[in-house]
Amino acid sequence: MNTLKELKSMQGRSFLKEADFTPAQIKALIDFSIKLKAEKQQTGKVTKYLHDKDLILLFQKTSTRTRLSFELGGDDLGANTAYIDPTSSQFGKKESVADSARVFGELADGIEYRGFSQKNMEIMAEHAGVPVWNGLSNEWHPTQMIADFMTIKENFGHLKGLTLTFVGDGRNNMANSLLVTGSMLGVNVHIVAPNSLQPDSKIQKLAANFAKKSGAQLVITSNIETGVKNSNIIYTDVWVSMGKTNWQERIKLLSPYQVNMKMMQATGTPDEQLIFMHCLPAFHDGNISTAAEAVKKYNLKSPEMEVTDEVFKSKFGRQFSEAGNRKHSIMAIMAATLGDLTLYTEH
């Protein structure tokens, strides 16, 4: 694969969801992420692909990893960044998405947008006239995917033929993105979730179309034993998505799907071929206020929810290297779509 050719094909484009790109382009972003990480580790700096670019970072939802990755990554690449938090602008209140997009496009060269509706992402990209990067929406989390599959490739040396099993809320943005992106890359993706929380039929159909071309095998099931068998990656996420408050309902519904050591062993996969991943934050102990409040309010036996502390802190855990890879992958996305690729070298 000619990585530079694929990167150049993304110049000037927005990054709103994975399916907007080809499998070759997604693979190029993963490889570029690994290259940028190696460059930083070896030299202490990276090529200034975004020299003198101005970036607006627009957050309707709070963030840790996404915000830091865009701010620190933009700085590493030579850009100037301006952060707008959920309360410090007229966006969405006195000014429409379309009008804001036009203003942002006049002021900056690129826009990161973390919000709610995917429709608003599309409107932002339509009217801004500059690349827009989806930092998270209710439907998709594309920047997370480049970091995730980068992490998997670092661990296994390849992607095609591996089996990734997502356990939990199969209708959330992470499940959607993992199912579609994995199917694009030839990764077998299993979604293990209660029947009421399995992916929308449109998402399943989209993934199935990619899987026909890549050879990926997709499984959607409520049966834990069937779903986790032969997995190389067990992946989970919080049970209650950002902005939701239905804790009691989700705890009751998803408690059987908690990732614990019994589940890891049920994969039947040798330890050296098995990892655990989580996009964070995670409810694995009582050291966060939300978990402590949930234990008290819902009379829970333990603050451990989607994953036990034992698994989280075990040799299988890759969640912190995964978190660190957010920066390198977001840098790759920004550089590919907005950067000066004449600076790119193969070495």
From TrEMBL:
Gene3D superfamilies listed in its UniProt record: Aspartate/ornithine carbamoyltransferase
Catalytic reactions on record: carbamoyl phosphate + L-ornithine = L-citrulline + phosphate + H(+)
Binding site for L-ornithine: N173, D237, S241, M242
Gene Ontology BP, a term: L-arginine biosynthetic process via ornithine
Record localization: Cytoplasm
Residues the entry annotates as binding carbamoyl phosphate: S63, T64, R65, T66, Q90, R114, H141, P142, T143, Q144, C279, L280, R326
PANTHER family: ORNITHINE CARBAMOYLTRANSFERASE, CATABOLIC, ORNITHINE CARBAMOYLTRANSFERASE, MITOCHONDRIAL
Name of this protein: Ornithine carbamoyltransferase
UniProt source species: Fructilactobacillus lindneri DSM 20690 = JCM 11027
